[in-house]
Specification:
Elements: H1 9-12, H2 32-37, H3 41-67, E1 69-70, E2 73-74, H4 88-96, E3 103-106, H5 111-124, H6 127-136, H7 143-147, H8 154-170, E4 194-197, H9 203-217, E5 224-229, H10 236-245, H11 249-252, E6 264-270, H12 279-283, E7 304-307, H13 311-326, E8 332-337, H14 355-363, H15 366-376, H16 382-404, H17 418-422, H18 447-453, E9 460-461, E10 464-465, H19 474-486, E11 493-496, H20 512-515, E12 521-523, H21 528-540, E13 545-551, H22 559-566, H23 569-572, E14 581-587, H24 600-604, E15 610-612, H25 617-629, E16 634-639, E17 667-670, E18 675-680, H26 683-698, E19 702-706, E20 709-711, H27 716-725, E21 728-735, H28 740-751, E22 761-765, H29 783-794, H30 808-817
Parallel strand pairs: 3-4, 3-5, 5-6, 6-8, 7-8, 11-12, 11-13, 13-14, 14-16, 15-16, 18-19, 18-21, 21-22
Antiparallel strand pairs: 1-2, 9-10, 15-20, 17-19
Helix pairs in contact: 3-4, 3-5, 3-15, 3-16, 4-5, 4-13, 5-8, 6-8, 8-16, 9-10, 9-21, 10-21, 19-25, 21-22, 26-29
The structure holds thiamine diphosphate and magnesium ion.
Magnesium ion binds at residues 229-231, 271, 273-274.
């Protein structure tokens, strides 16, 4: 909603029609003579060789999955094998036209694309570069086994290294690209421009735009290709990634020096099937994937359909589209038609297609057809092709044998703690690039900075409580931390639905609009999956991101991106990639059922995410600072109940300077001796009121431990408090069933069993929808609930008259009713 773009009534009421341009379908018609003459002979042979090598690579997997052996060598491969037999021309054509610094992302069926891109990079990098990569990659762990006894040249060595790394990865060997932690569907090799391949259909569709964004913002050379299947165009996140990539603002509002539209090709590997369903004619209505471009932007994404059963039209298309992206006119949609002759997986009985159909595609098989074409035009003789084929088979067999040899290619020991060690990277990175951060003025001159300067940062001022308007509050605290890092890390960007002129949902970013150029702070489409996906892609490329989702309730819209992508790529890369993403989500207040749920439990359950929930200015600043200096994904919960709240606990106030709070450390907010009240989120303030009442009315001294974080969590200070008091009551605004507090209660029971007077008690919100603002008191834990639960289940309070029913009988009754 920039003011510079005016919505004029006269204009929008104009009568007109929207015209579409023709979308080319198989427009390539260069005569073979002419086409072949434009390539060096050795390149044409190399193209064929790459296709044949991919076919053989996949054939090995097919044979061992279906027959248990390849050329007499038996092997039981337990994992998946989604093969791309038939799709080689599409993969090799694409890769041939790409440079090493062009990055490809792919799908569960990407072995062919990986190999093709690797072979292409090997041809384009120098011997020195290749040797440096092979020697440094995982300290030569992949190079050692293939180097031994090999007397050939560097390029041949690199091909062997690469095929061996791929097989090893698929077979879960330590010598795999990702030590076997990625596996067949998630393998990648960044030094050759091969970025994560994704077992989630369309997963790359929302991630790759973030990679393209990284290239633009950080002025990196190269383009990004998202290789996704035809069925993935039925996935919402793919559409979100496309619209994210096609935003007008790249060209209308951003500094032209940044480069214009995102340099990304959505390349549909269109094999006409999605497992057993057919997007063509059955499960979708588009008929041509290329048609979809027409709805996206006036350029129609430069969409076209190309024949991916022949590498030459694909090379031609990629070269032309690459040029479009270089000129800043992206994004591009390519509908590359191909066919998978192999089943979806080796267990596929092909019950959804006829034998005749498969045979017809085998008859026009690209490898045979391309060889025949090259032979007919005397590019190489039949005997040359035969020799190459024999070499491929011999090498593939060698490398397969090497990769299954447990002596040479061991698996992680079953008691290895490597996976645990790579779930988080736990690094501290000041800046991901050394160039000066782009700012539009000095931070000290920022109007918000100046306004904050007059605020009071301590709980009291001259002996009096601080009026709300004058208090340095949680919103200011978050702003200060963000500003600090924006001014240090040039790669840091923030985006979300209302991030720029609006001032960020709940005004945390107010002031940043003036400070930051568009490409560092911008509005996105209302595309939660697109937002988180882009953040993941940006981080995978090496940049820092703050993504914002307004309300925690909207995380469902970005479910896959949070649960499977943000959380998992560090570990699936065996610790080679980092994920410096802070995902800000706020828990609503007074907004009813779909805008007020504390969803900490959801993300707490997902391995690989840090989940924090500070609710005081001191904690908010210190924890945001730590999150923004880290390298791990942090889901940063904020409560709308407390954005305006000043510091009430930290007597010395919130420092103006920089400090960090360890993201695993709880904080004792009130010292006490009789009972420990553990809190997470704004229930801290409810607990503080309850503790006050306990003190004054019943003479009970409550200690309050604010967890501040759900994961990671240092239990020591919590357990120490509970051991001291012998009693624990846990309270949060999350619905009680399955809440973080239930996990903490269960662990405290075990940690403190000998010292507990009774089991820890969890007080949460009711297992209901959040009702209207006027009725919230019936839903969220109230002071009375805490007192009543304590009285009923832990520590009878003298003379206390319970106002609510916190009995165990009620608990049993409610559970039986599922509420
Ligand atoms: C989100 C999601 N839904 C379903 C699946 C199961 N699945 C795996 S592959 C596949 C078909 C994908 O078809 P397409 O995108 O055309 O790629 P292709 O398999 O043809 O290469 C399905 C449904 C999945 N992996 N992810
Ligand atoms: Mg398909």
């Amino acid at each position: 909603m920039p003011k510079s773009i005016v919505i004029e009534p006269e204009r929008v009421f104009n009568r007109e029609v929207i015209r579409f341009a023709d979308i080319p379908v198989n427009a390539y018609d260069t005569a073979p003579d002419q086409a072949l003459a434009s390539f060096a002979k050795e390149d044409l042979v190399a193209i064929w060789r790459d296709m044949a090598a991919i076919r053989e690579f996949e054939t090995v997997l097919n044979e061992i999955k279906t027959k248990g052996a390849y050329k007499g060598v038996t092997y039981n491969h337990a994992g998946p094998a989604h093969l791309s037999i038939g799709q080689e021309a599409a993969a090799v054509g694409m890769a041939f036209a790409l440079e090493p610094n062009d990055h490809v992302f792919g799908s569960h069926r990407s072995h062919g694309e990986i190999l093709a891109k690797g072979f292409s990079a090997i041809r384009k990098l120098t011997d020195e570069q290749l040797l440096a990569i092979m020697r440094s990659y995982r300290d030569g762990a992949l190079l050692g086994p293939v180097e031994r006894g090999f007397g050939g040249g560097v390029r041949e060595l690199a091909r062997r290294f690469f095929v061996y790394g791929a097989y090893s990865e698929i077979f879960a060997r330590e010598t795999g690209f990702n030590r076997g932690l990625g596996g067949s569907m998630h393998a990648f090799f960044a030094p050759f421009g091969i970025y994560p391949n994704n077992a989630i259909v369309g997963g790359s569709g929302s991630i790759a735009p973030g990679a393209a964004l990284f290239k633009r913002v950080n002025r990196k050379p190269g383009i990004v290709v998202a290789n996704i299947g035809d069925s993935s165009f039925g996935c919402g996140p793919v559409w979100e990634g496309i619209t994210f990539s096609a935003m007008d603002q790249y060209r209308t509002l951003w500094d032209p020096a940044v480069g214009g539209g995102l340099p990304i090709i959505f390349n549909c590997m269109n094999n006409f099937y999605g497992m057993g369903g057919q997007p063509f004619g059955e499960t979708m209505g588009m008929q041509y994937v290329a048609r979809l471009g027409a709805g996206v932007n006036p350029e129609q994404m430069h969409a076209e359909r190309v024949n991916g059963y022949d590498p030459l039209p694909v090379i031609d298309a990629f070269r032309r589209k690459r040029q479009i992206l270089t000129e800043g006119r992206g994004p591009v949609l390519l509908d590359t038609i191909t066919y998978r002759i192999s089943g979806h997986s080796p267990s596929d009985a092909s019950s959804y297609r006829s034998k005749e159909e498969i045979e017809r595609w085998q008859q026009v098989d690209s490898i045979r057809a391309f060889r025949a074409k090259l032979a007919a035009h005397r590019i190489a003789s039949d005997s040359t092709f035969d020799t190459i084929q024999s070499e491929i088979e011999a090498t593939t067999l060698d490398l397969f044998k090497l990769a299954i040899d447990l002596e040479v290619s061991p698996r992680l020991a079953i008691d290895s703690d490597l996976v645990g060690a790579v779930m988080f990277s736990n690094q501290h990175v000041e800046r991901f690039d050394t160039r000066a951060p782009e700012l539009l003025h000095q931070p000290a001159d920022n109007p918000r900075v100046q306004q904050i300067r007059g605020k009071i940062r301590t709980p009291t001022h001259e002996g009096q409580p601080v009026p709300k308007m004058k208090a340095f509050n949680v919103r200011d605290a978050l702003f200060e931390a963000l500003l600090h890092r924006f001014a240090i890390d040039p790669t840091m960007v923030a985006f979300g639905e209302e991030n720029r002129d609006w001032g960020g949902a709940f005004a945390v970013y107010r002031g940043l609009t003036e400070l930051l150029p568009y490409h560092r702070l911008f509005n996105s489409p209302i595309s939660e999956a697109g937002i988180v996906g882009a953040a993941v892609g940006y981080a995978l490329e090496g940049g820092r991101v703050v993504a914002e989702l307004m309300y925690a309730d909207f995380m469902g819209r970005a479910g896959d991106e949070i649960f499977n992508q943000l959380s998992k790529w560090q570990a699936m890369s065996a610790g080679q990639l980092t994920m410096p993403v802070v995902l800000r989500v706020s828990v609503g207040s007074k907004y009813g059922a779909q805008h007020s749920q504390d969803f900490t439990a959801l993300v707490h359950h997902v391995p690989g995410l840090k989940v924090v929930y500070p609710v005081t200015p001191y904690d908010a600043k210190g924890m945001m600072n730590a999150a923004l200096a880290g390298t791990d994904p942090v889901v940063f919960f904020e409560s709308q109940k407390v954005y305006d709240t000043g510091e009430m606990f930290e007597a010395s106030g919130v420092p103006e300077g920089y400090y960090e709070i360890d993201l695993s450390e709880p904080s004792i907010k009130r010292a006490g001796t009789d009972v420990t009240i553990v809190t997470l989120g704004p229930a801290l303030y409810t607990a503080a009121a309850a503790a006050q009442e306990l003190e004054t009315r019943y003479g009970v001294s409550a200690e309050i431990v604010d967890l501040r974080t759900a994961n990671p969590l240092n239990y020591e200070p919590v357990a120490a408090s509970v051991r001291k008091t012998g009693k624990a009551l846990l309270v949060s605004d999350a619905v009680e069933r399955g809440s973080v507090m239930q996990t903490v209660a269960s662990n405290l029971t075990q940690l403190c069993f000998d010292d507990l007077d009774g089991p820890p008690v969890v007080v949460g919100a009711r297992n209901w929808i959040t009702p209207a603002a006027e009725l919230e008191a019936m839903f969220f834990p109230q002071t009375a609930w805490i007192l009543d639960a304590l009285h009923e289940r832990i520590l009878p309070l003298k003379g206390h008259q319970p106002r609510t029913n916190q009995s165990l009988a009620t608990l049993v009754d409610r559970e039986k009713r599922g509420i």
